[in-house]
Design a protein that fits this description.
Blueprint lengths: L7 H56 L3 H10 L4 H31 L5 H26 L4 H24 L4 H9 L4 H10 L9 H36 L1 H19 L3 H9 L6 H27 L3 H10 L7 H27 L4 H13 L1 H37 L1 H5 L1
Length: 416
């Protein structure tokens, strides 16, 4: 077999590079959430957490994992300018139409829980702009140009920090102002695209072409949807069973989980584009397990052990941050087990997607997620935050085990 041209070292280097830019944007978001929790209070922050998590879910439905078919098709012939322009115009036009429909659904869904009319309408409009901007950025990535995405992520982080400074100086506790500070920086995706790529063109979507693209995207989206469903439903269940305050505390508990996984999120950017140049599944996993995954698992075990002995100082820190002790063990479990399985799943799914093996892995993930809903309802009702976290971890572990089994059984087939 021909020696692979893309090495594990190159994969790690590129992945960490993209993860750095994701980290710049994410860290500002984590700082904002902690600050909002302190200024808005438990109840209003719970409303913020509910709306922003619903926003993320609907944004994901609009984005729809179009990055997979876009990057795959563009990378097959990156120099075909005519196809590039036509493809981007078709997908962009379609995403605007779908985004409008989703924004209407978002408005009705959010108003059924909270009557924040102005805030909800603003989020619905922002969702369209944010999703279409990210979709457009997938096209240069198909040509292995990561610069537009990297710049936009840096701008998101910098603009949010600047707005947070004004938020702190003004000392406001207004929920709408907090949401503006959090979401306005998302428009950096549009700013960088217009500056670096120019004005996108509109065209009447050709149904046959769009259906083929969205069919590929649908099965690709099953995986991110399967990860988002337990989190969003956790917010919903906790709100219904225990109130907005507990739902807000759960959102705070998710911050370290999001923070640490974002440090490695660049791996999906790179693997999808480079999977065909990587070794087969068995060879890849043999290299990854001893060099990356085994040390991570050992570190996570050490975190759990250490957590038992630092209870007192943690109570002091949580008191300073005005947070209940009930978020401590959910945070520990998410860091130690949730992050490990999340990183493993992200690698597995991106690898399969890059090889064009999309449907089986997506189906595995989404069936596990939907199948866990009864368990999550019971856990949320009886065990509150800890129960939701345990259900998320169990879903991740199940998905990871099934994907590993699938990969080892079909390793030779995926390379043919």
């Amino acid at each position: 077999m021909e020696e692979p041209k893309f090495t594990l070292g190159q994969l790690v280097s590129l992945s960490l590079g993209m993860s750095f830019f994701f980290g710049v944007a994410q860290i500002s978001g984590f700082i904002a959430r902690i600050l909002f929790r302190a200024t808005l209070g438990p109840e209003y922050y719970g409303v913020f957490a509910f709306l922003i998590n619903l926003f993320v879910l609907f944004h994901g439905l609009n984005l729809f994992s179009l990055n997979v078919p876009i990057i795959a098709r563009i990378s097959e012939n990156p120099s075909d300018d005519a196809f590039y322009r036509n493809f981007s115009s078709q997908v962009f036009s379609t995403s605007l139409i779908i985004g409008l429909l989703l924004s209407i659904a978002f408005i009705f869904g959010a108003l059924s829980v909270t009557q924040e009319y102005v805030l909800i309408i603003y989020l619905a409009l922002t969702m369209i702009l944010y999703a279409t901007g990210q979709i457009l950025h997938c096209f240069p990535r198909g040509r292995e140009r990561f610069r537009p995405s990297a710049i936009s992520l840096v701008l998101v982080g910098l603009v949010r920090i600047i707005l947070l400074v004004f938020f702190m100086v003004l000392g406001t506790t207004n929920l709408l102002v907090a949401m503006l500070v959090y979401t306005l920086p998302f428009l950096a995706w549009w700013a960088t695209y217009l500056y670096l790529e120019g004005i996108p063109s509109l065209s009447f979507p050709r149904l046959k072409f769009i259906v083929s693209v969205y069919s590929d995207a649908f099965v690709s989206h099953l995986y991110p949807l399967s990860l988002q469903i337990p989190i969003v439903l956790g917010i919903v269940f906790l709100t219904g069973f225990h109130g907005f305050g507990v739902a807000g505390d759960f959102d705070i508990a998710l911050i370290p989980y999001y923070a640490l996984t974002s440090l490695l999120v660049g791996i999906s950017f790179v693997i999808i584009s480079k999977a065909r140049k990587m070794p087969d599944f068995r060879s890849t996993m043999k290299k990854m397990v001893p060099s990356i995954f085994l040390p991570i698992f050992l570190l996570c075990g050490l975190i759990i052990i250490t957590a038992y002995f630092v209870d007192t100082p943690v109570r002091i820190v949580l008191t300073i941050l005005s947070l209940p002790m009930s978020v401590y063990w959910p945070v520990v479990l998410l860091i130690s087990i949730g992050i490990t399985t999340h990183v493993l799943i992200s690698f597995l799914v991106s690898y399969f997607q890059g090889l064009g093996v999309i449907k089986p892995v997506g189906v595995i993930a989404v069936l596990c997620s939907f199948g866990s809903i009864p368990l999550q309802i019971a856990f949320a009702y009886y065990y509150s935050i800890e129960g939701v976290v345990l259900s998320i971890i169990l879903v991740n572990i199940t998905i990871a085990m099934l994907l590993l089994g699938y990969g080892y059984r079909t390793s030779k087939d995926t390379r043919s």
